[in-house]
Design goal:
Layout (H helix, E strand, L loop, with lengths): L2 H6 L3 H7 L21 E3 L21 E2 L5 H4 L5 H18 L3 E3 L22 H16 L4 E7 L12 E3 L2 H8 L1 H10 L3 E4 L3 E2 L2 E2 L4 H11 L5 E4 L7 H7 L11 H12 L4 H19 L10 H15 L1 E5 L11 E4 L17 E2 L5 H4 L5 E4 L11 H13 L2 E7 L18 H13 L3 E6 L14 E4 L7 H9 L32 E3 L8 H7 L16 E8 L3 E3 L4 E9 L5 E11 L10 E10 L4 E8 L1 H4 L1 E3 L4 E3 L3 E10 L2 E11 L14 H5 L2 H19 L6 H7 L2 H9 L6 H4 L6 H12 L1
Parallel strand pairs: 1-3, 2-12, 3-4, 4-6, 5-7, 5-17, 6-9, 11-13, 11-14, 14-15, 15-16, 19-27
Antiparallel strand pairs: 7-8, 10-16, 18-20, 20-23, 21-22, 21-26, 24-25, 26-27
Bound molecules: beta-D-glucopyranose.
The site of beta-D-glucopyranose (BGC) has 7 residues, from loops.
């Protein structure tokens, strides 16, 4: 298909029309030219295809589908292959249902536990989020249907999401809020990118040329089209210019007219409209020319797959040995979520599950008794309910409480206001734990909760929002049929106010200042040496693992070299299981404020008891670099870096050091305000200054002040040095007793800049 030729045959009105949706879920077709209309649908963890009344809030029904675990859970698998498999299944369902693009994955960084949409997002860590997103995209797109990575960018709160400006400094944007998108674009080339509702440093994402064109296409090489989040296009004409190709949903022809007028009046270059059409049509035909509606969609098989995926995502947060349960013992399942699990979040990602499996159903045939414990709908637990739960707990060897957040607590569209479980559930847990010390808490939630009872229970399993088959997965993990292997993709603070964004989150009016900078999640807690409830990367198993024999391919490299890192993981326990080998990098003496460690690699490894495997990582410049705001690029500052292997950001098992030499010289600009220390720190500057340095320095030290001699005597050597260190060049005028003149300073500045 010659797309360029096709666009040439379109009228201006047809082209402008193509730049917005036909209705809620379809692009426009142009019959006379054989341009088909295609459908897009939400995801990301399943298919939310609406065949009748459309909406983007999860209100109206969609077709029966399979709800897979949400991203909060899948990220915890730390398993690229697993999430790819999930993507493949979703891709098949899209082919079957004639959906050209599934709207996901959602990769915004979890800045605060409060964000209502955290359940849909992957991680507080951009490396992990990027890797998992790329795997998902590759999985979906292997079926020749597209994805729409969202919400580009810096959409980290639901509060005022359509008007708020995420005000973020350049380095933080580059290091924290953009890389998940960057990685996914570079590794998996999503067919589309969805721009977010919010503004970034004052400019709406939907009209942000820097973001949508310079960075996304220019720097990262994105080839597909940019679609607006539903209703995110503010000024449509500016949007076309900035690189927003498709506006969704339909604007009732209003914005199409504006585009036409702008071209006619000369304020918008028609070439921009042509380009948007070309990009949209490339994707439309890529899908339609290879559509395979005959692709089978075996929902039962996907339900099983969903159970398997969920079981690989669960994080065993705490275990004093009470887990795994024995199938011959009596167990009390307590809490309404045992019967009616909460397994997905609210809003546009809400899937109409064709069936669900609760833990109670999955435990059929086992010696399990049940007490409701609390009522989800009323958010209440009567004394009688709690008493019944305690009786059941006493009757059983172990009590398993199914707790978590009711639907209304976390959803797209608004943020949480606190991090607590419902009071009735906390009361229930305290009472049951007092009745039976063998108490286990299983959590169904999309984002961290406070656990005031954590020391009183024997085990905690974080099941997250595990999809429609979650009950199956939970029972397998509880009874040890599956050895838990999930690890936290986010830190669990002890309380909300410990979170680094606590003071600023949500912003003032429409201004949300990201003042914690790059210190998001564990990057903050580790730097502060602050206690957390459970650290990033944490996850227990029913077996034990040891990491040892860390080796680096070199002790010193240049920033053009690749460093190979090997380490051995061994299962030293008695059950087969999977572990996650995590690799962190930290700069020992950074010139800018940097986190102690940052995740730069991970591998999930399956090991039989006694078995060991060598794991290899390749590191390159970017893994050591920070974003340098002087050169607006990634830069490695020459120095020593730690390479750490751990089981979490707080459980580091081995550490080695490598020196990395920068091959990039950053030209410094000198002025009369440059301080001596910065000059002395630059070998090149010193080489230029050395011939005249001796005189200059002694002149500098002399002062015209009468009291100078006494003062000099009183001053110890260190103080003198410190004073000189921080002295700007122009200080010579005042402190050299007239020996250093204005001409001399000008000459030195010129010499240094030469
Ligand atoms: C959400 C998107 C979603 C779109 C379509 C918006 O409200 O932010 O994530 O894909 O609606 O439903």
């Amino acid at each position: 298909m010659d797309i360029k030729a096709l666009v040439k045959r379109m009228t201006l009105e047809e082209k402008a029309g193509l730049c917005s949706g036909f209705d809620f879920w379809h692009t426009k077709g142009v019959e006379r030219l054989g341009i088909p209309s295609v459908m897009v649908s939400d995801g990301p963890h399943g298919l939310r295809k609406q065949d009748q009344e459309g909406d983007h809030l999860g209100i109206n029904d969609s077709i029966k589908a399979v709800c897979m675990p949400a991203a909060c859970a899948t990220a915890a698998s730390f398993d690229r292959d697993l999430i790819r498999t999930m993507g493949e299944a979703i891709g098949r369902s899209c082919q079957h249902e004639e959906v050209s693009v599934v709207l996901g994955p959602a990769v915004n960084i979890k800045r605060s536990p409060l964000c209502g949409r955290n359940f849909e997002y992957l991680s507080e860590d951009p490396y992990l989020a990027g890797e998992m997103a790329a795997a998902y995209i590759n999985g979906v797109q292997s079926n020749n249907v597209g994805t729409s990575i969202k919400h580009f960018a810096a959409n980290n709160q639901e509060h005022r999401r359509m008007s708020s400006s995420s005000n973020i400094d350049e380095r933080t944007l580059r290091e924290i809020y953009l890389p998940a998108f960057e990685t996914a674009v570079k590794k998996s080339q999503p067919w589309t990118v969805m721009c977010s509702y919010n503004r970034i440093n004052g400019v709406f994402a939907s009209e942000n040329k820097w973001l949508l064109t310079d960075v996304l296409r220019g720097e990262w090489g994105f080839k597909g089209f940019v679609v607006s989040d539903w209703g995110a296009a503010a000024d449509r004409v500016k949007g076309v210019e900035a690189g927003l190709d498709l506006e969704m949903p339909s604007s009732g022809g209003e914005n199409d007219k504006r585009i036409v007028e702008a071209v006619k009046s000369g304020s918008l270059d028609e070439a921009c409209v042509d380009l948007a059409c070309e990009r949209i049509l490339e994707i439309v035909f890529k899908y339609t020319e290879n559509a395979k509606p005959e692709t089978p969609w075996d929902k039962e098989a996907d339900h099983e797959l969903s159970a398997k995926i969920a079981s690989e995502c669960m994080v065993l947060l705490k275990n004093n040995g009470v887990l795994p349960l024995s199938k011959t013992d009596k167990t009390a399942f307590i809490g309404e979520f045992a019967e009616k699990p909460r397994f997905q979040g609210g809003g546009s990602s809400h899937i109409n599950s064709f069936k669900t499996t609760s833990a109670l159903e999955a435990a059929d045939g086992l010696d399990v008794i049940y007490a409701k414990g609390y009522d989800v709908a009323s958010d209440q637990a009567t004394d009688e309910m709690i008493a019944k739960a305690c009786n059941a707990a006493k009757e059983a060897k172990t009590a398993v409480i199914f707790a978590g957040l009711p639907d209304a607590y976390e959803s797209e569209g608004y943020d949480r206001t606190h991090m607590r479980l419902p009071d009735c559930q906390n009361r229930l847990i305290e009472a049951v734990a007092a009745a039976n010390p063998n108490t286990v808490v299983v959590l169904h939630n999309g984002s961290p909760v406070e656990m005031p009872w954590v020391d009183k229970v024997g085990a905690v399993v974080e099941a997250y929002l595990g999809g429609q088959a979650v009950g199956n997965a939970v029972v397998k993990v509880l009874y040890g049929d599956v050895n838990p292997s999930g690890h936290l993709a986010e830190s669990f603070p002890k309380k909300l106010s410990d979170n680094p964004s606590y003071l600023f989150y949500g912003g003032e009016g429409n201004e949300a200042d990201y003042r914690e900078g790059v210190f998001v999640g564990y990057r903050y807690y580790d730097k502060k040496e602050a206690e957390v409830l459970f650290p990033f990367g944490h996850g227990l198993s029913y077996t034990d693992f040891e990491f040892s024999g860390l080796k680096l391919s070199a002790g010193e490299i240049s920033d053009n070299d690749e460093l190979t890192v090997t380490v051995t993981a061994k299962n030293v326990g008695s059950r087969p299981g999977k572990t996650v080998v995590q690799l962190y990098i930290g700069e020992k003496n950074p010139v800018v404020m940097r986190p102690v460690r940052e995740l730069r690699g991970f591998e999930k490894v399956y090991l039989e008891p006694g078995e060991s495997k060598e794991v290899t990582f390749k590191l390159s410049k970017r893994d050591f670099a920070y974003w340098n705001v002087d050169i607006h690029d990634w830069h490695v500052h020459t120095g020593d870096f730690t390479v750490e292997i751990g089981k979490s950001s707080r459980d580091i098992c081995c550490r080695e050091t490598v020196k990395v030499n920068s091959t990039v010289k950053i030209k410094r600009r000198y002025t009369e305000n440059t301080i001596m220390m910065d000059i002395m720190d630059d070998p090149e500057a010193m080489a230029k200054l050395r011939p005249i340095m001796g005189d200059f320095m002694s002149d500098f030290a002399a002062t015209g002040d009468n009291n100078s001699e006494q003062a000099n005597e009183a001053m110890n050597e260190d103080m003198g040095k410190a004073m000189l260190n921080y002295m700007p060049l122009r200080g010579g005028l005042m402190f050299s007793g007239g020996k250093i003149t204005r001409e001399m300073i000008d000459k030195i500045v010129a010499l240094l800049n030469s």
